[in-house]
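Duplicate of #3305? Posting structure anyway:
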């Protein structure tokens, strides 16, 4: 096997068996053989000295190089419980009596070399919960928010597992602002064992697409599932060719979203641009995986718990589950996230809910300390990196670790899965169209970095009584354009008069100065009118400027449209609560069952 795989050619050594205990941190770390060209951890290279508890060179093996408990008895030809041959392997040079005697001898030698016992307290070792969990964060982007800890000295190996695509956009792995990662699952049949899945002629469409938004302060994350059968527009897309040239693929209007990948030679950058156009959210990175991602990672974590609210027998996905909770992995895990014909309405929207349940459960398992075992972490890191194709901005193990470390603060109860709202397509019952009335405020929440996660408990703050609102026919306002699009003032007046029945609204032309934010100026005796207009336009409290004195009966309020004004009918302030009718679940909810 080559140096980028699971071992090195010729030495028959499994890197998972080279984990050693770092006495300086109390954590296991990977000691690679310097002879193989990889640097050993600093503590492993440290020269032995008096009182370090290690035998001097030439007196026997280092007791810290013994196999980890999870790796014992895995050598070819060694039966469980059988002793290794004398003088061989990690036990060479140990005193008779096994590891216990070796540890005792090491402590005795150390005490003799150190002299009188030190009065300083030994440095406490980190608990299992604090052990390194970085590489749990490589899978499908979601595990990026589940990690934490230190590097594993696996960069050279794991780099060889990761595939990269140059989408013509180069972003740093870590940013100070919000992070938006596009997660793609393709239905391509390429890859070992995938010949029986997907469409036989598929070029690898966007079968599963999730936009994961992590807030600027790293306190919450939102994962938006985008239905593959939604009709949308695909913009023009430049794609890098094998010879280094760039080919521009023309955009299309009114086509299925999943054709943004694969069709006409489109690469993940085309889906990237399509999602940006759809949502108005600027994407930082993408991660793409095929069918093997679910199979191999679910095996690496020893299965994922899922729940069926009823018996499931889907002949298409070959999933058979009785009602209740189950641990699925491998082929069965893949069948679970692909099934749709016997759950919900039998549509792709029902399958999205299964995928959200599966990913939530996987995150919960990754978040637990069940994988603090170095051997298990090694298996997970291998499975995760082999499954990934990413953009060049995160196209190395080091960059993925940096990204994971940046996002690790998000708590699981602050991760929300939601589905982009859609309606049945009146022109074709086999696909759907965007429900703009619900989708637009949802997209604005993400754009404004507002969380979808519901706060725990009720606020104990003192609530003020709502201001009484004036009826539409009494709302009197002059509208001026101070930074909005050309013709915004007249457009707003038309909207107020024709949609809201505010007949006393007037176009007052251009404002004398440009404003960054929209402003509504009103007198104390116009508070009820201001409340009505603010509600219509979605004005934040910061936009309301109340004068000190009352105004005359026929004096209008003054509304100045600022640069934050988009168009009439679009709220100035993004909503802070999930719009009604938008499907959403919390990743920490363990009571979700497929029905």
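Output from current build:
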């Amino acid at each position: 096997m080559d140096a980028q795989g699971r071992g090195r050619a010729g030495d028959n050594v499994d890197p998972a068996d080279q984990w050693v205990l770092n006495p300086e941190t109390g954590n296991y770390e990977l000691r690679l053989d310097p002879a193989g060209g990889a640097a050993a951890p600093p503590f492993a290279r440290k020269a032995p000295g008096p009182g370090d508890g290690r035998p001097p060179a030439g007196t026997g093996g280092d007791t810290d190089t013994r196999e980890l408990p999870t790796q014992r008895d895995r050598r070819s030809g060694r039966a469980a419980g059988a002793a290794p041959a004398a003088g061989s392997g990690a036990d060479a040079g140990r005193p008779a009596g096994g590891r216990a005697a070796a540890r005792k001898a090491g402590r005795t030698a150390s005490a003799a070399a150190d002299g009188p016992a030190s009065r300083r307290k030994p440095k406490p070792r980190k608990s299992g919960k604090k052990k390194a969990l970085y590489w749990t964060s490589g899978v499908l982007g979601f595990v990026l928010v589940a990690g934490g800890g230190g590097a594993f000295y696996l960069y050279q190996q794991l780099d060889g597992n990761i595939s990269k695509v140059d989408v013509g956009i180069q972003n740093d792995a870590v940013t100070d602002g919000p992070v938006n990662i596009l997660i793609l699952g393709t239905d391509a049949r390429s890859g070992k064992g995938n010949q029986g899945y997907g469409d036989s002629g598929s070029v690898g469409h966007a079968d599963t697409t999730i936009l994961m938004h992590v807030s600027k302060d790293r306190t919450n994350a939102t994962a938006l599932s985008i239905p593959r059968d939604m009709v949308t527009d695909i913009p023009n897309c430049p794609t890098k060719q094998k010879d280094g040239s760039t080919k521009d693929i023309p955009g299309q209007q009114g086509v299925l979203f999943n054709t943004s990948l694969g069709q006409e030679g489109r690469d993940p950058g085309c889906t990237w641009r399509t999602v940006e156009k759809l949502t108005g959210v600027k994407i930082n990175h993408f991660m793409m995986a095929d069918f093997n991602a679910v199979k191999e990672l679910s095996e690496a974590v020893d299965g994922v718990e899922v729940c069926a609210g009823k018996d499931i027998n889907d002949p298409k996905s070959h999933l058979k589950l009785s009602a209740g909770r189950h641990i699925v992995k491998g082929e069965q895990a893949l069948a679970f996230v692909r099934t749709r014909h016997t759950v919900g309405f039998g549509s792709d929207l029902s399958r999205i809910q299964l995928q959200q349940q599966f990913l939530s459960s996987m995150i919960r398992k990754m978040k637990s300390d069940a994988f603090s075992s170095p051997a298990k972490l090694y298996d997970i890191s291998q499975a995760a990196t082999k499954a990934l194709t990413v953009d060049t901005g995160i196209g190395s193990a080091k960059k993925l670790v940096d990204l994971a470390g940046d996002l690790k603060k998000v708590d699981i109860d602050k991760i929300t899965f939601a589905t982009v709202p859609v309606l049945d397509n009146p022109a074709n019952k086999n696909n759907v169209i965007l429900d703009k009335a619900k989708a637009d405020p949802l997209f604005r929440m993400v754009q404004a970095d507002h969380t979808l996660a519901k706060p725990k408990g009720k606020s104990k703050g003192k609530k003020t009584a709502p201001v009484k609102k004036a009826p539409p026919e009494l709302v009197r306002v002059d509208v001026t354009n101070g930074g909005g699009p050309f013709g915004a003032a007249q457009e707003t007046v038309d909207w107020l008069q024709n949609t809201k029945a505010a007949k006393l609204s007037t176009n007052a032309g251009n404002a004398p100065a440009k404003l960054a934010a929209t402003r509504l100026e009103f007198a104390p005796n116009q508070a009820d009118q201001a409340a009505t207009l603010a509600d219509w336009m979605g004005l934040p409290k910061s936009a309301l400027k109340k004068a000190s004195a009352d105004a005359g009966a026929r004096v209008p309020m003054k509304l100045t449209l600022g640069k934050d004004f988009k168009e009439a009918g679009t709220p100035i302030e993004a909503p802070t609560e999930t719009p009604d009718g938008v499907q959403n679940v919390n990743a920490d909810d363990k009571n979700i069952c497929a029905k």
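Confirmed duplicate; merging threads. Residues 1-18, 32-96, 102-153 have pLDDT under 50 and may be disordered. Residues 90 and 402 are 34 Å apart (CA to CA).
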